Amino acid sequence: MRNRGQVFFMGLAVVLLIYGCSRDPNVRKQQYLKTGNQYFDQGKYREAAIEYQDAIQIDKQFPDAHYRLAQTYLRQGVWAGAYQELLRTTDLQPDNLKAQIDLGNLLLSARQFKEAQDHAQTVLGRDPNNVDAHILLANAYAALQDVQDSLREMQTAIQLAPDQSRSYINMAFLQLNAKELAAAEENFLKAVSLDPKSVPARLALGNFYQQQKRLPEAEQQFRQSIQMEPKSPAPYGALATLLMSQNKRADAEGVLVQAKQAMPDVPEAYRMLGDFYFLLNDLPHALQEYASLHQQHPKDDRVQKNYAQLLILNNQLDMAANLNDALLKDHPQDVDGLVLRAQILNGQGHPNDAVQSLESALKSDPQNPVAHYSLGITLASIGNSQRAIGELQEAALLRPQMTQVYRALGTMALRKGDMVLLRQSAEALIAAQPISVDGFLMRATARMGAGDAAGAEEDLHKAMTLAPQDSRGYTGMARLRVFQKKYPEASLLFEQALTKNQHDLEPLAGIVQLFLIQQQPAKAAARVQQQISLVPGESSLYLLLGQVDMNEKDYASAEQALTKAVDLNPKSVDAILALTAVQLARGSVNQAITSYQRAIQENPRDVRPYILLGTLEESQGKWQDAQQHYERALQIQSDNPAAANNLAYLLLEHGGNVDVALSLAQTARRAMPDLPNTADTLGWAYIHKGVYGSAIEVLQEAVKAGSTQATYHYHLGVAYEKNNDHVHAKEQLERALQLNPPQSQVEEIRKALADNAGG
Fold first, then answer.
1. DSSP letters spanning 505-541
2. Which is higher by pLDDT, 98 or 7?
3. Is-contact 336 330, C-beta < 8 A?
4. Which conformational region is residue 582 in: left (phi greater than 0), alpha (psi within -120 to 50 degrees), or beta?
């Protein structure tokens, strides 16, 4: 027998051996890889990613860990991370053909078709019989519109592995793209016959039947898929989508409830019902479902993020912030969490802080399209339109199917009057979503702006065909008829639009416009009153009625209607500002000031009341108060031209910083190049800077566009005088006096004349 001492030393040796192994980097990295693989197989991708990253920390040249991390990112939809890891894998291990193919497929989905083709050919150079490479090459050819080579490559893949169901599925999709419907169906059926228990094959066949409007056959395939794999989420989702296409909401909802019950611990399954409500814009049910899911699955980050997003959409910002802060506490650089934080900050009125959060997100993931999109939207809200457009365009490059980017770009293009950008955005939206009316409506507007009435009409007809119950197509066509002066036809189209949506103000505004064009204000007011009787309690209708009364200078009636509009919707800044205009027209300046202050209180992010109040204060000689309001407007929207122009002029008139004034004046002039007022302010700034030649040039434009404005002539006269052109100076200064300048300016002009004569 061994004595106790021998046992002790043997035990100690084992401990030392284990300890030594735990310090061996090769052993440790393999252990991290093994644990990561276990998490991956359980669907715990975040945990798997952490293990693979730990392995890479030990050995940055560890190709297996890089490849498995890439696979994890692919499952999570972290495309930029997957791309980087696949690239690193293929650099370290060029003969990893699976990684080459995965990288090619990722490039294919990113629309980098030629690069995907190169990876397929790289694999075929090493393994000419690689089926996956032939399939990748076939798909790349198809994306490049090379139909014949695509079908040839796919036929080669089938010949190499005639018993593989997936090859026939891929061939069928390529044939479908080539409009070879009979051949596509034959190959879908072949795939099912080769592997009758293959859910992907049956789903592909079911989707084909759905495309061909053979709905009972599609439903049969989806239900058989559920029977074969009741623990797979995909068939439930396909069946629910099919049922929704037939307006069978209750049935679709039942299918997703069934999926949740069948797979209570599978994230893709238990989240489907909440996502279903969200896609239907049923936010109350979506919020209720995700609140329940968050209690049941508190460690599911996607549930936490989706729940926070729904809270933001429901304006429950404090609760969303608490939820998101908990996420960021554990994962400070989580890109989704940083984007959500930015949305919360925007909702709380802190867009500059939101910009910082989004920039931090992009530092972590420079290729994240959602972060670029969110940054673009935020920058637009603070008036940095040039950079906003750049961020939105970057988002579109990274994710061409992200249609909200094109809508946002279209909105910005309309605001800037940029018909080229509007048309580009519209065509990108049409390419990404050809059955949506939005792209055609946007392109119709762009074509009208470019004078292409025939093209606009074609797009509007398409919109009306795609969505016959959408009022916007009829309204757009009516606007086109107004442009063509076909008023009776325009009136009928506006009325048709109203029957589609009684709450849409735009067609009613068009009808009012037609009556006013034809000098029939009483009919305009009566038509608005008629709509009020149909849709009582609608603030916007009283706003429109007040605007009709204002147009006829019936200020008593206008004030009554606009007061009603504000009572119905106290937060309507449009109604408050219209009421203020009536109060000013009636000489009630103090009431107007109170109304402007109310508008600011109701919506502190709207720059209009600040600028209008500043203008009123400026007219009263309260230039310090006016300056504060212009500065506040520019804090909200840094490139607002009206605020920039007015503040620049105040600074020049009252001894402010000339360099700041010049910069502001240039901002205003760039945004409003056709407005003589901005030319005058910029010219006045050039005079203060001593740049008289530039001043003369821009002030000549002001005088040409606003020849009856004494101030413009006065400033041009000063510029000539400073430039020693005494003849032209005298001519402009005398003209300024003839135009009855403000009394405060008369002495300045006379002094300038005296200085000019003395010169």
1. HHHHHHHHHHHHHTT-HHHHHHHHHHHHHHSTT-HHH
2. 98
3. no
4. alpha
Q: Is 71 exposed, middle or buried (0-12, 13-18, 19+ CB in 10 A)?
A: buried
The predicted-structure confidence for 62-104, as pLDDT tens digits, reads as follows 889 889 998 888 887 777 788 888 889 989 988 889 998 888 8
Read off the amino acid at residue 158: I
Q: Which residues contact 44 (CB under 8 A, 6 or more apart)?
A: none
Residue where the block lists tokens 């893709």: 268
Residue extents of the structural domains in the chain:
271-331
- Which residues lie below 8 Å from residue 308, measured CB to CB, with a gap of 6+? 320, 323, 324, 327, 340
Q: Which residues of 194-226 are buried (b: 16+ CB within 10 A; e: fewer)?
A: bbeebbebbbbbbbbbbeeeeeeebbebbbbbb
Dmax (CA) for the chain in angstroms is: 127
Please give the DSSP secondary-structure letter assigned to residue 504.
-
Confidence at 654, pLDDT banded by 50, 70, 90: very high
- Let me know: does 176 contact 151? Beta carbons within 8 Å: no
The two structure tokens encoding residue 241: 């989508």
Cα 356 to Cα 374: distance, rounded to the nearest angstrom: 12
- Calpha distance 65→50 (Å, rounded): 11
Give CA separation, 728 vs 77, 89, 713, in Å. Answer: 69, 75, 11
The letter for the amino acid at 439 is G
Q: Which two tokens stand for residue 229?
A: 């794999």
